[in-house]
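INFO  loader      accepted 1 record
INFO  loader      residues=339
INFO  predictor   begin
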Amino acid sequence: MAPRIGFLGAGLIAHLHAFGLHQSPVPSTFAGVHDPDAARAAEFAAGWGATACDSEDEVLDSCDAVYVCTWTSEHARLVEAACRRGLAVFCEKPLAFDAPRATAMADVVDAAGVVNQVGLVLRHSPAFAYLRRLVQDPDAGRVMSVVFRDDQYIPVQGMYASTWRGDRERAGAGTLLEHSIHDVDILEWILGPIASVSGRAANFHGIDGIEDSVATVFDLAAGGLGVHTTVWHDVVERPSLRRVEVLCERRHLVVEGDWDGPLTWTTTGAEEQVLTGDDLIAACRAEGLDVADPDGDFVRAVVAGEPAWPTLRDAVRPHEIVDAIYRSAADGGTRVDVA
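INFO  predictor   done
INFO  writer      dumping tokens
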């Protein structure tokens, strides 16, 4: 029987997950949706065939699994409410304002024994999955240097319309926590453990507690060095973009798009190679890499009663690294160990 999926929060990210579920070959049905903005919940319900609900409890009582797509400050409370009912839960990132609270959330879902997944969806990205395979290939040699740039217009405007991201009581912090926790997670997933960080932060928009530019130098446990930059600017005409360059001893790799590529690499003694779009997805599938369907994977796990991936527990480590970067920035960029 197709599981009934509820939504808490009806903003852009909820629509993206609804689209992912609609496109997935794994069948599911939409149940209730609730948002503090009743008009937004009604629009979501009309567009996806869900039922607009007057309360969170009404949603939770109508479904088998729930997507928590609210502002960050509400995540813990709603995940706990879902676990009390034994519901499978997909929680958007970041889990919480800091690592201790993220750890407490992971403890709750583990104690409840429910299927759970976190919105670190870049682990399903074909571009990053294949980059990981190429970096970890012994022919590449050791990672020497990484340059990772992530930029996006500040999402209180434009298609995101996430005004809550300008409120530290609801968001917790700015671009590093709210957006680039994705990047921190992917860096370790691809490159192995980060040993230490040194960060600097700036606030150009003047929104209290919401930094919009962070630069971090990090040391890999295996010996390589890296630089990560994340920026929330005002170039609304520019889409959210990531560029990653990895230089190994015998291989140079560049990702220009964080999902479909292109991914370009050159290995000692060989010509440059490029993968993008459908060819990139096909290459990933030929290697048995789990890509491109995080929502379908969640529903598949719900139906089978098996663990989903990545879990809330998987999200604790990137929170620990983000916390360390913030501590470093608050202390003028001092080096902070995170091993």
